[in-house]
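FORM 7B - TANDEM STRUCTURE REPORT

SECTION 1: FIRST PROTEIN
SEQUENCE AND TOKENS:
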Amino acid sequence: MRAKEICVIYMISRKTCASAVLAFRPYISKGNQPAELFCFIALLLPATHRFQSFRYLRSVNTPSPCKTVKLARYSESTTVVVAEPVNEEADSESKTCGKILVFLSWVLVCLTMPFSLFICFKVVQEYERAVIFRLGRLLSGGAKGPGIFFILPCIDTYARVDLRTRTYDIPPQEVLTKDSVTVSVDAVVYYRVHNATISIANVENAHHSTRLLAQTTLRNTMGTRPLHEILSERETISGSMQLSLDEATEAWGIKVERVEIKDVRLPVQLQRAMAAEAEAAREARAKTLNTISAEKNSTIVFPLPIDLITYFLRAKEDSQSNL
């Protein structure tokens, strides 16, 4: 295996076909002995493209072919693909052993018919999906459900994945704002599993990981903003957190639908200081208004008694009524 290899990659999509050529250098151990070769490919995929499979056709100057990598769905953001050369002997032995075990499992199902049907047929609800592993490998075809599906005893295992939206109340987090004010902030996150296969295969516990990430994202987001923005721009901060969480959990098969900041609690001393400042501002405005009104006040003095003026006004009204 030489120090420079060329892989031709065909990206198959529903709407487009493209090809890319990647030059990479393997890690060479001491003594010019070939080490294990990994090819890391970072691709920025447009939102309109849904790549169903990546096939490594050939590797120049490499006697062994590359492994075919198939994924049910790719991320809309950066995706990292790991490729490694295929060990033909180990792969053929594994396939042969797997076929034998599958055959024996089918024999067991036939011999124990109809009792085996209670074990082989499973049902998942409309809001659930089943991810099936056969001899430790993901079964082709993606997640099963909703409805009934079939598994082979002894060699198949499956995991149920709930696709419904979940809510997580983030506990109050003590945060030091950008202007060095300590506040306690709590929020609620609405998220769901949008890819059952990735949520099982890529992370040990997708829900627990999402919750821990939500806590750290809340602290990091609040720590970069001053206090007045936190109090007045909650919707903007919530949207920023939602985008950040959604991008980070895409590789786990999680879709963050909404983030809402519930409450921002200030220290008691700071609350008193803010109340005193607001009261002082109100008093200053009131004094300013009184000063302006006092300057524009005017007093009119009539040199006649008020009774005489009243008599003339009544006489005028009587004359108008007679007319």
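SECTION 2: SECOND PROTEIN
SEQUENCE AND TOKENS:
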Amino acid sequence: MYGKLVSTEKIGAKSYNIDIKDFKNNIYQFACLINNKWYYSKVIIIN
């Protein structure tokens, strides 16, 4: 399974938990820590 990053936006929070799988739209959403800042990322899955 491969993923293509389609969007990333900054989150104004020190900690963040998100793990949403939308298989209907082939989208995987998660939070990632970049340079000590949380970002909300949306990845489109390419099977």
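SECTION 3: OBSERVATIONS ON SECOND PROTEIN
The two ends are 5 Å apart (CA to CA).
The chain has a mean pLDDT of 66.

SECTION 4: SIGNATURE
Preparer initials: ____
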